[in-house]
Amino acid sequence: MLRLITVMAASLLLSASSYATEVMPYGTFNYKMSHDQDSSGNASSKLENNSSLIGVDIVDVALEGGSGISGFANVEVGLDVDDSGSNTFDSRTAYVGLENDGGAAISLGRQSHPFTNVHKTNNFEVYGGSAFWKYADRSSNSIKISSGPVSAMGIVDGSSGESGIDVWDVSVSHSMSSIDMAVGYTDDIVNDISYWAAGASTSVGDLSLSGTYSIKDAATDLSAMEATVGWKAATLGYGDKEGTGTYYTVGLSHGLSDSLSVYAEYQQEQLDANSNDLEHYSVGTKFSF
Questions:
Q1: pTM of the prediction?
Q2: Is residue 259 part of a domain?
Q3: Cα(244)–Cα(212) distance, integer angstroms
């Protein structure tokens, strides 16, 4: 079986190169030592994987006839480098699509939600980013359409009893000078829950600022807000998620080269359902290519 997979992969790459296809592999090896407290306040230390992944982008598949349309595809998997579970490879994204010369694109498969584009404060390696209401980061059975600053995605999973789209979301992004802004909306039709969010980030020299505000619109509306401030290698974060708790995060990151970096982070959680303040810290290293 391994030999068959190897032959098939080699054939795919050879075929792609013969038709002027550009194949771009990428990945991240991320490993950390963490010291975390559970909900009872008991602490434990662990050396473990931190969301390592590997992927391949395939682009510039020129179609015949000079139509100005090209194809693209992507496969990305999470790597369980500790081999601690039953799946060494965990599917993250896998999709195929078409794009015209104007930048409009349509794709099908397992894809990232446009709503995640709004989350401007998810900029720590281990902690932070907890005070954000969302449906999901990625979903299967999806179709995505994007053009310029607008990206929309629908999910038709066939398991909910709905006759059409089960979930859809849309985001609109805009850059003005040094400020990046985005707004998003997700409608979980099956469960009658919707999500709203707005985020913005800016940088001035070595100073970076970002903020995100989100709402979960269900039987009872719940809101969440996050803010981060960065100065050179240091980043401070604060998050407040209604009905969950508040989060204080400190992170340090230093690049040893263009590909290799080291980091250290600390987070204190004040959870609504727990009378104890929980503390966590991690140190780790990341290599990206």
A1: 0.88
A2: yes
A3: 17
